[in-house]
TrEMBL record:
Pfam families: DarP (PF04751). It comes from the Eukaryota. This is Uncharacterized protein. Keywords: Coiled coil. InterPro entries: DarP, DarP_sf. The keyword Phosphoprotein does not apply. Residues 41-68 form a coiled coil. It comes from Gossypium armourianum. The keyword Ubl conjugation does not apply.
């Protein structure tokens, strides 16, 4: 029973992080407000803004590149997306854990 609860909780924070990721990258105001208004957990909002901008900028750059630059830009996009995903999953996991113990 405990394993099932852990797996359910684990999937919940991954789903939350994925929803946040999509919303932040697409500049969805509702999602952006939801993420930045999390007050029960202390997190670096400036770092989050930087990571979001990095993904958005690298994705924009990937649309206007020559074939020679494509691999380099795609690597930058992957790296930026990975960093933001890691940050959001950590935040969502802390939030899920916090809600569990309330």
């Amino acid at each position: 029973m405990c394993y099932f609860f852990y797996m359910q909780q684990s999937q919940e924070f991954v789903n939350t992080a994925n929803r946040w990721f999509d919303g932040l990258i697409s500049k969805d105001i509702e999602i952006t407000n939801e993420v930045f208004s999390v007050s029960s957990i202390d997190f670096d909002r400036q770092e989050l803004r930087k990571l979001v901008r990095r993904v958005q900028t690298s994705q924009e750059q990937s649309q206007n590149v020559s074939e020679e630059e494509k691999a380099k830009i795609e690597a930058a996009v992957r790296s930026a997306r990975k960093s933001l995903t890691r940050f959001l999953r950590s935040l969502a996991k802390q939030l899920t854990t916090e809600e569990t113990f309330d």
